[in-house]
Amino acid sequence: MKNNVLCLIFGALIFSACNQKEMKVSRSDFSVVTEMNDFSPGYIDKDKNGEIELNRSNFIGNTHWVLSVNRDLTLADISQSLQKLTSKKHAKGGMHDDLKDIYFVYSDTVHKQNAYVKLPFKTIALTEPPVYELGEGVMSLLIKSVDDINDASNENVKTVLTTLDKNMKVETFVNVLIQLEKQKVTDKLNEEVYIY
Prior knowledge:
By secondary structure, the protein is of the alpha/beta class.
């Protein structure tokens, strides 16, 4: 009887361990931020029915929100979730402005550590961007891959209007954010981004 109970408990533990899903986060060879304090974790992935699931129940106001996102999803998959998060995080007119940011966690495979990169956009539009007449020092940038960022580091460019390809994988997107940080372009980015 005692052995049966132990076998039952052991079997239940193995079954529950097998049902846990492993999150496949993005990978890079560079760490932007290696330590994170004062944060709340959340994740975006597909549920068992294949629907996008945003778990933000652990988010606390005025902390950094750190997202674990399945690297195989596309921006089209997660864009509505990102839009909800940015509008909640950066809403104006409340009693207290939230001064913290949203970050993506990823794996630095060279240094074998988790690292974090900030989402530099405060507003996300899910429509085709309007056609702008660009003034001096302003450039429009359509990003489909990391290679599309090269011209943005030009010192004559003061403002970058950004559109992201909705078919881009999350892992590519995280590496785009890392490259923007490496080239010191994030300060030039318009706070609104179009995902189209």
